[in-house]
Structures are given as C-alpha cells and as structure tokens.
Amino acid sequence: MKKHKFTYEKSGVNINAADNFVKFISKISSKNKGNKKSNIGSFGSISSIPKNFKNPKIVACTDGVGTKIEIANTLNKYDTIGIDLVAMSVNDLIVQGAKPLLFLDYISINKIKLKKLRLIIKGIVKGCKISGCDLVGGETAEMPGTYEKNKFDIAGFAVGVVDEKKILHKKKIKKNNLILAIPSSGLHSNGYSLVRYVLNKQKINLNNNKFLTKELIKPTKIYVKEILNLINKNLINGCANITGGGLEDNIKRVIPEGLVADIDLNKVKTKKIFKWLKQNNIENKEMLKTFNCGIGFCLIVNSKNLNKIKKFFTKEYSPYVIGKIISGKDKVKLNGKIDWS
Question: How many other C-beta atoms lie within 10 A of the C-beta of residue 173?
C-alpha cells in the first residue's frame, strides 16, 4: 500500500509564496526609504530614535480597518486599504503629540495570493510615506481553515516619539478654548458593519453603484503633517481622532475633570455619504455613535490662534468652529442636531 506523503503545502500553506512576498516587501520598503538598508526578513527591526529630541518619550498604537476589508473584497480593490491601516494608528499617535517613526503590519489570510498582497502592501507603503514613517517589518500568516476562501484580515502597529515638553496633556485644555472640526475624507474605517447591513437589507449591488463604490473604498485621511506642524508652532492645546464611538466618545477622552466640550451640532458640515446613510432609517443617536458624520479630527485651541491654524490646511480640510470648552461635569454636551438634508 502506497503511503501518502504529508507536506505543509498540501495542508494549504505555501512557504515559497511567502518567501517571494517577503522579498517584494523588502524591495518596496527599501525603495520608499531611499536606501538599500532594510530590516525586512530579519527576526526584529532596529531603528534609531531621532537625535533632535531632548527628552524623548515613546508612544505606541495598534488598530485595524474592521469590516472595510469586506468592501475591498467585494470590489476586488486592494490598493487603498493599506492607507486606511496606517491612518488608523498614526492618527491616534498624533493625539499625544507624537511623530510617527515606524510601522509594522500583520496580514492573516486564507491563501497567499501575491497580486492581492502586493496591492495591500503598496497602500501601506503609501500611507507610511504620507505619515513620514518607515515600514520596518511585519508578519504574513497563511491560515487555511481559519479563514474562508479569499478572506483575510489586517492589523497595524505604529510607534512614535514625542519630546516630553510637547506631550498634549489634558491639563493644557482651558475654559473658553475653541473646539474645531477638521473634515473627514468620508467614512474612514468605522461603522462598516452597519453600512454592509444596510447594503444587504436594501439589496444594493455595490458594483453597480458608482457613488457608493467610490465613497465606501475611499481611504482615511491622514492628519499627521498638519497636526505636527501645529504642535511644533504650539498652536493647539489638545486634539482627538474621531473613530469608533463617534464625536462624543472620542472627544470625551481628552477633556479634563471639571470641564465640558460644549458642541453645537447645527454647525457640523456633514458629507453626502452620511446623508445617504441617514436616509436608510438610521436614528440621529445611532449615526453619531457609529460614524464620524463628516468630522475626522478635532482640535482644542486658544481663540487667538484660529486664523493661524487655518493656514496649515487645504480648503478641503479647513478647520471650523463647532463649540467651546465650558465649566461642568459631563465632559461632553451635544446641542442641536446635524442637518442631513
């Protein structure tokens, strides 16, 4: 009786394909750095802390893109999801005032398909370039049996550095500071389970809807350059990345005890994609809890700095006033309601 030979490849894991992918990552990441040195493929990455920091503190963040990956699968479009991945972590780093230094990714997938993975990595490299940080390593795990055919997940890990004197502590936020909204590029990477639920219930074929195709895959805005410029000029007292939980839950995290972010929702400039979602029988409270509703990032600033701050942004992402800091106990107070018309 002929004995059956068991191999790793027959179980669904292709080591050669993984090795070829590592070579591709090493090549593209080195090209992005402008030199031939790379930590890719080693057991760990080694990076230097910049010398222009007197008392450097390390800040680290991790995040994923949630079920936005299912939109990428539906549209068979993978070249921008990597930008989202970088954005979700680096936009958190800058809330503390940190400059992003390095980024690592983790990709888990049913079966390695080089074309698909290369597109994902190209997006990650582009996100790192926008953020001014290096892709220094990562992990790709081929996991047949854990993931269904064509399914995958991605996670990102960012490390940044901030001079101790530049850390954006809550104590810098004072009464009568203004609260500024910086527009989002769209949905960013939050609320996609609800979006997909709506698509399913309304029996919408995403491939036949140009508006939704464009909006739902649009990459998350990376705010690193603008925010770091403001920090270097000492123009902001605090800020918040508006992600899962929406405006209230995220701005609450940076408000000190005894103060309240008094926000006028009537002043919020929302976007067409959120107006479309609202038309699908989603209540105001649910919209505000689930989505950024057009505000991707918030700044808390002295009123005298308002005009100076606007000079650091393009017209598309120009900050505007939505409230101010007052005395109180609840940390966040939402007044009025967003105009969805």
Answer: 21
**Which pLDDT score, from 0 to 100, does residue 35 have?**
43
Q: What's the number of domains the chain is made of?
A: 2
- Tally the C-alpha atoms within 13 A of residue 94's C-alpha that lie toward its C-beta: 28
Do 151 and 73 form a contact (C-beta atoms < 8 A)? yes
* Beta strand spans in the chain (E): 56-64, 99-109, 134-142, 152-163, 178-183, 238-241, 259-264, 295-301, 320-327, 332-335
Q: Where are the alpha helices (DSSP H) in 235-334?
A: 246-252, 272-278, 284-290, 306-310
Whichever domain contains 231, its CATH number is 3.90.650.10
**Inter-residue contact 54 to 73 (CB < 8 Å):** no
Residue pair 273/187 in contact by the 8 Å Cβ criterion: yes
The one-character DSSP state at 200 is H
Measured over the CA atoms of residue 116, residue 120, residue 125 and residue 130, the dihedral's sign is positive
Sequence-ordered list of residues with C-beta below 8 angstroms from that of 145, at least 6 positions apart, any chain: 12
Question: Within a domain: residue 207?
Answer: no
The residues, any chain, with a CB within 8 Å of residue 305's CB and separated by 6 or more, are 235, 236
At 65, list the tokens: 């893109």
Q: What is the pLDDT of residues 290-319, one digit of tens each?
A: 999 999 999 999 999 999 999 999 999 999
Hey, what are 212's tokens? 């939704």
Query: What is the span of the domain harbouring residue 146?
Result: 15-43+50-166
pTM of the model: 0.90
What tens digit of pLDDT does each residue of 206-231 get?
999 999 999 999 999 999 999 999 99
- Same domain assignment for residues 98 and 156: yes
CB 107 within 8 A of CB 154: yes
Round to whole Å and give the CA distance between 42 and 322: 48
